Amino acid sequence: MFTSGAVTSVTFPRSPVTAHVHGRSIVYDSPHFYIVGVLVIYLLATCVSGLFSSHRCINAFGVLAFVLAVAAYQVSVNTFVSVWCFFGAVLSLLIYVHFSGPMQACRPALTRSHERAAP
Question: Which whole-number Å values give the CA distances from 42 to 28, 30, 61, 107, 109, in the listed order?
Answer without folding.
Answer: 17, 16, 15, 26, 31
